[in-house]
Specification:
This protein has helices at about 15-20, 50-55, 70-80, 85-100, 105-115, 120-125, 130-145, 150-155, 175-185, 190-205, 215-225, 230-245, 250-280, 285, 295-305, 310-335, 340-350, 360-385, 390-410, 420-430, 430-440, 450-455, 460-485, 490-500, 500-515, 530-535, 535-545, 555-565. The protein is mostly helical. The radius of gyration is 25 Å and the shape is globular. It starts with 14 loop residues before the first helix and ends in a 12-residue tail after the last helix.
């Protein structure tokens, strides 16, 4: 976008003034349209008519399965409960989680893990220094939010009287892989796990050529994307196929996993059909042809943020909200003039249908869609829970627009914010608070005036997760934004402030968000599902989603077919 005359030179005013002073530039000659930028985004690759038809199509699964889902579930539960020894029980839990069917047995698994403590002497004795056993237990307990400490691992990993990790571990491939996965759940200050991750990664990479094909496949997959960072549905699809090639695979669990995958896929197809109809009805693509059309990618992101099948309403709200944010981001980043952006921000603050009358024609559709979508969420919450969240949703949208506007002011005035200024604004502009606050009322938990009040001030959990979200987003989009001449990212600012190269800046930003930044932040009372949003897994899905516009994502149609349209074949009945 051409820069208005009044903003071509760096502003001489203070940083605070730039942040708070309204911008009312009217430098365009009357009757002369502004010159607008284009990001040359890749076009949408999806046929929405075909996407809608997925839900209506009658699935022709392989021969009709004679066993009902309930019977299979009963038999798998029996497998879980009949294991008496601790290690086999943990392995069943791990397999169920990787197959994507552990949610059926949440109560049983949680009860088992809550009854185990690594500090108990009998547990320590049963592990007897077995690194695979200890790291598997450590990872499962930490995922379950159970108290864990790496102290027991310390005694097994270290040489006696030496600070180095035992060299003998290099020959324990199973233990190394489990250690590598467990190390990604490190909290701040758990340096042993950081050291173990580096050790295990190097040792596994060195031994790859000598591994059997099935183990090599496991290791390559883990080294590419650690389990804690994987996108749930895509990882489930991969592991089901991988598990089918395991000679020790349990046919019953495999069959139930395939049946469940297809059932959840059918559920997702119905959700996709509904949000696709909503998107087409909004007609934003026709009104805003310059903006990205990323609805399916946004739904993919939503399945990573809210993966439980029973939380479909939250998934749809997150997908819709994210799709609107992507379009709005392009208006503020690429297309809109400062005058227009100020008008839009003010209109969002008013939160009235009549406010659109003052907006440019191209902004009216997105404004109306934002209001209608969020008001519909508020009406559903009021009807179901008796609480009014309209002000909360409006505030979240207004805060996002103000953050977008500040970044636009920085860009148009050639102002370089400090890293602190950037991150203080960036955790809002990345849209994390907006999406979380829209999903929060849809998580099937008690909504009270107190919990709503807590969210108004953005609890520490939301702030820290959103800051990590910002760093992940910058990592994926920095190069492309630099080419377009957008406002600097955290990576560019770090390079400027510290006179470093891009690689060093990326490393520094990665360290800033690599560990569970929300680890020390308390979730709002009663927010049982808040951990879904704090997980690195959701952030990893975001990396894959945003990487599409940075030219680095895998084929969208490939993963789309894998998790949304291709059924998994069942095993013949006699093999179960």
């Amino acid at each position: 976008m051409a820069t208005p005359k009044c903003a071509r030179r760096p502003c001489a005013v203070s940083r605070r003034a730039i942040a708070n002073t309204p911008v009312m530039c009217t430098s365009w000659s009357e009757g002369t349209p502004p010159v607008r930028r284009s990001a040359n985004y890749q076009p949408n690759v999806w046929n929405y008519g075909s996407v809608e038809s997925l839900a209506a199509a009658k699935h022709q699964h392989n021969p009709v399965d004679p066993l009902s889902s309930d019977k299979l579930k009963f038999r798998v539960r029996h497998l879980l409960l009949e294991e008496a020894e601790l290690l086999p029980k943990l392995e069943v839990i791990d397999t169920l989680q990787r197959l994507g069917i552990a949610y059926h047995f949440d109560e049983e698994i949680s009860g088992m893990l809550n009854s185990i403590s690594m500090a108990r002497q009998e547990v320590a004795d049963s592990m007897d220094g077995d690194v695979y056993f200890m790291t598997l237990l450590f990872r499962l307990l930490r995922q379950n939010n159970s108290p864990t400490s790496p102290e027991l691992l310390l005694r097994s990993l270290k040489q006696d009287g030496n600070s180095d990790i035992k060299e003998s571990l290099r020959n324990d491939m199973k233990g190394l892989l489990s250690l590598y996965e467990a190390s990604h759940l490190a909290f701040e200050g758990e340096d042993l796990l950081d050291e173990a991750r580096i050790f295990a990664s190097k040792a596994l990479s060195e031994r790859l050529p000598s591994m059997n094909p099935h183990l090599r496949s496991s290791v390559r997959n883990a080294l590419a994307i650690p389990l804690h960072w994987t996108a749930p549905r895509l990882q489930t699809r991969w592991f089901i196929n991988h598990y089918a090639g395991d000679t020790q695979a349990d046919p019953l669990m495999l069959h139930f996993a395939k049946l469940d995958f297809n059932n959840v896929q059918s559920l997702h197809q119905q959700e996709l059909a509904r949000i696709t109809r909503w998107w087409r009805h909004a007609n934003l693509k026709e009104n805003l042809p310059f903006a990205r059309d990323r609805l399916i990618e946004c739904f993919y992101f939503a399945t990573g943020v809210v993966s439980e099948p029973c939380l479909g309403a939250a998934r749809e709200v997150v997908a819709k909200t994210f799709a609107l944010i992507v379009v709005l981001d392009d208006i503020y980043d690429i297309y809109g003039t400062l005058d227009e952006l100020v008008m839009f921000t003010n209109a969002i603050e008013r939160w009235e249908a009549s406010a659109s009358e003052q907006l440019p024609e191209y902004m009216k559709a997105i404004y109306s869609t934002i209001l209608n979508t969020s008001n519909e969420v508020a009406e559903n919450v009021l009807r179901q829970d008796g609480c009014d969240v309209r002000f909360l949703l409006k505030k979240a949208w207004h805060d996002l627009c103000k953050a977008f506007l500040l970044e636009a002011k920085w860009h148009h005035s050639n102002y370089k914010p400090t890293l602190k200024e950037y991150l203080d604004n960036g955790w809002v502009s990345v849209s994390g608070p907006l999406m979380l606050i829209h999903a929060f009322p849809m998580l099937k938990m008690d909504i009270t005036p107190k919990s709503i009040k807590q969210f108004e001030s953005y609890p520490k959990l939301i702030q820290m997760v959103s800051k990590i979200f910002r760093l992940c987003n910058d990592s994926a989009t920095h190069s492309e934004e630099l080419k377009r001449g957008d406002a600097p990212s955290s990576i560019a600012i770090y390079m400027f402030e510290n006179m470093t190269k891009e690689h060093d800046a990326r490393e520094a930003m990665s360290r800033g968000g690599a560990k569970g930044g929300a680890g020390g932040a308390a979730a709002p009372p009663g927010s049982k599902n808040a951990r879904y949003f704090a997980s690195d897994r959701a952030l990893a899905v975001h990396r894959r989603t945003t990487a599409g516009d940075a030219g680095r994502a895998p084929s969208a149609t490939a993963w789309g077919r894998a998790i949304y349209s291709q059924d998994l074949p069942f095993l013949p009945h006699h093999q179960i």
